[in-house]
Amino acid sequence: MRIEGIMRALADPTRLRIMRLLQTMELAVGELAQVLGQSQPRVSRHVAILTESGLAERRREGSWVFLRSTCGPDGEPLAAAAASLLETAETEDAGFAVQCETDRQQLAAIRQSREAGATAWFADHAEEWDGLRGLHSPDGQVEQALADALGEQPLGRLLDIGTGTGRMAELFADRADHIVALDKSLEMLRVARAKLQNLPADRVELVQGDFSALPFAGAAFDTVLLHQVLHFAQDPARALAEAARVVRPGGRIAIVDFAAHDREELRERFAHARLGFSDADLADALHLAGFKPDEPTALSGGPLVVKIWLATRADTPADPSNSSSNDKVASP
After folding, report:
1. Which of 264, 290, 311, 322 is surrounded by the most beta carbons within 10 Å?
2. Distance of alpha carbon 133 from alpha carbon 288, whole angstroms
3. 324 pLDDT exceeds 50?
């Protein structure tokens, strides 16, 4: 990151406004255009300059491109200094302050649009979700049990794999330094974005990706969470090996899923690849991935038993190509 590029990037009123907006929330290019009252091609040109300078980064989700500030407390010092300068400018420059506040008020329409989309999605899928929920312990009971199992230990950098609606990221936001909410589904990421949009922009990040090939460097997280996700994996052993790769030594993994069951209809109705997991099989898979598992917690309350498996990252995980989920993590 070079100071000349940063100063050139900031030498435009629209780009100053964009940077202040991105300190509030991550925004799609089209959403920025709506707030700024400018054409999308024009905003895209400003976005290109900001990303080339390193002050912002783009992430594509299907046909949408989202923009995120890189000026958080853990970012480059020059980027953090630029963010501090703009914050001071809003305090000292009355005209700039009025413009920034007007822009932030326009974000209300963006938030409402996202929430309306999430509401419509749930309305379309309510019957499916209610049918599955009726088979196991109430969500609140599961959430409390998970919070109790994780204890008071700080969560640090938390990766929520298969974030779905974003509920787990929302639940643990106050206990984590930073949360990355990952999901393969663009539809679910949009639902999660609506739920998480009021969290500080530098504390939560939404990423599209697959649990079998996580788009992160090794040892990037302190805690990894898979909440009702592993039963979708055709190869759970590979998913666990990937989780182990991105967890630092001494970090933890928390898996919330079903105990082994025989509800075969869940394969067709909800696309479950695995009919739950036995303690022995999951313990073997965790050991193979390089984790040291704790005793699991079981929650009854319906035909399906929900279990919580915790484990600590220990040794270097085995090469997942040398194992198969078919012989290490079985289901009925």
Report:
1. 311
2. 32
3. no
